[in-house]
Write a structure and sequence with these properties.
The protein is built from 16 helices and three strands. The structure holds iron/sulfur cluster (3 copies).
Length: about 325
C-alpha cells in the first residue's frame, strides 16, 4: 500500500504545515488588533505577537550583521533575528525545512500546487531549463545581501535598526497588504496564477530568502536518496514534488530547491526506494520518514524557547513609545 493512503510522510508534512499556518494566521489576526490599537483606531490593547517579525527578513539580515560585528542582539525586532537564525540553521542541517514546513507562503504555494495538479493545469518545467527559472531569485538575493553586507557599514546598520521606519516596518507591511495598490494586486494575481501552472512559482523563481536557504541547504547532511535498483521509473515522485524536482533522475536529492517535504517518498509506490539519509557518500545512514518533519519542528520550538529564555523574543519598547511611533501611520495607506 502506498504510504500516501496511510499516515506517512505526506500526511505528516501537511499536518505540520497546517499547524504552523494556523499559528501564523492567529498571529496575523492578533497583530492586526495590535496595529489598530497602536495607530489609535482602537482603545483595546492587544499584545504584539513577536512572530510577525518573521516577515522582515532584510531588517533581520542587518541585525545579523550587527550581531556578528558587535555581539549585540537587535532590541527592536529580536524575534526577527531569532527566526532568521532558525531558518538558516534548518537549511544547514535539515535541507530547506523552514520553507517546507514553517513558512506560510510555502504552505500557500503547496496548496496552489495541489489545486493546479487536481485541475490538470500544472506543468513541470524541463529539468535542463530548471536553473533558468531560478535565476531571478539569485539576482534578487545578490541585491538583498548587498544592502547590509556591501552598502551599509556598522554605523548605517545601527542607524537603520533604531530608525522609526524600522520600528514600525511590520505595521507598514500589514497596511501594504491590507490595502493593496492596483500594482500589488496584479503582482499577487500573477504569482498565484503562476503557482497554479508551475510548481512553487514564487518560491522557485523569485524569493531571495528561499534562494539563500537553498544555497545553505546544499551542505545539509540530510537528503532523500533513491535506490535505483528498486525504482520503476514511474515518475510519481516528480509529479508530486512541490518543487518539480526530477527525483527519478538523481541518486541523492541535493538540489537547492528541495525542502525536505518528503511528498516524493510519500507517493513512491516502490517501498524503500526513496528514504531520508544522513551523511554524504556511501557512509550515510537511513533515517525514519518522520525525522525531517520532527527535527525541523523541534528546531523551531527549541529556538523559540531559547530566545524567550534569553530575552531575545519580545521587543521591550514601552507601550507609550509604540503609540507615539505609530502616530500618522494610518494615513500612509491612502
Ligand atoms: S522560498 Fe521564500 S516564500 Fe517560499 S517558502 Fe521559502 S522563505 Fe517562504
Ligand atoms: S516514484 Fe519511486 S519508483 Fe517511481 S520513479 Fe520515483 S523513485 Fe522511482
Ligand atoms: S525532492 Fe522530495 S523532499 Fe525534496 S522537495 Fe521534492 S518532494 Fe519534497
Amino acid at each position: 500500500m502506498p504510504r500516501s493512503q496511510s499516515f506517512g510522510p505526506s500526511a505528516l508534512h501537511r499536518l505540520v504545515q497546517a499547524v504552523f499556518f494556523l499559528a501564523m494566521l492567529a498571529a496575523g489576526i492578533q497583530f492586526a488588533f495590535f496595529a489598530a490599537w497602536a495607530m489609535g483606531a482602537s482603545e483595546r490593547f492587544v499584545p504584539r505577537p513577536a512572530s510577525a517579525e518573521g516577515f522582515l527578513p532584510i531588517s533581520a539580515l542587518i541585525a545579523l550583521k550587527r550581531l556578528v560585528l558587535t555581539g549585540q542582539w537587535d532590541p527592536v525586532h529580536p524575534a526577527g533575528l531569532a527566526i532568521l537564525l532558525c531558518a538558516l540553521a534548518a537549511a544547514l542541517f535539515f535541507r530547506k525545512g523552514f520553507c517546507g514546513y514553517v513558512c506560510p507562503l510555502g504552505t500557500l504555494s503547496h496548496w496552489l500546487f495541489r489545486l493546479g495538479r487536481r485541475a490538470g493545469c500544472m506543468h513541470q518545467p524541463s529539468p535542463r531549463l530548471g536553473f533558468l527559472w531560478t535565476l531571478p531569485k539569485y539576482v534578487l538575493l545578490g541585491f538583498v545581501l548587498w544592502i547590509p553586507f556591501g552598502l551599509m557599514d556598522l554605523e548605517a546598520c545601527e542607524a537603520f535598526l533604531l530608525s522609526r521606519y524600522n520600528m514600525v516596518a511590520d505595521t507598514k507591511m500589514l497596511l501594504f497588504f491590507l490595502h493593496p495598490s492596483a500594482t500589488l494586486a496584479a503582482c499577487l494575481a500573477f504569482l498565484a496564477g503562476g503557482s497554479l501552472l508551475f510548481p512553487s512559482f514564487w518560491c522557485r523563481c523569485f524569493c531571495p530568502y528561499g534562494a539563500l536557504l537553498g544555497l545553505l541547504s546544499v551542505c545539509s547532511p540530510l537528503a532523500v536518496r533513491r535506490d535505483s535498483r528498486l525504482c520503476t521509473g514511474c515518475r510519481q515522485c516528480q509529479a508530486h514534488c512541490p518543487q518539480g524536482i526530477a527525483v527519478h533522475l538523481a541518486e541523492r536529492i541535493a538540489s537547492p530547491e528541495c525542502t525536505g517535504c518528503l511528498e516524493c517518498q510519500g507517493h513512491c509506490p516502490s517501498k524503500g526506494c526513496l528514504e531520508v539519509h544522513a551523511g554524504w557518500g556511501r557512509r550515510s545512514a537511513r533515517l525514519p520518514w518522520w525525522s525531517m518533519a520532527l527535527l525541523t519542528a523541534g528546531l523551531v520550538l527549541g529556538v523559540w524557547l531559547a530566545a524567550r529564555a534569553a530575552g531575545h523574543w519580545d521587543s521591550t519598547l514601552p507601550k507609550e513609545a509604540v503609540r507615539l511611533l505609530h502616530e500618522g501611520i494610518a494615513s500612509l495607506r491612502h
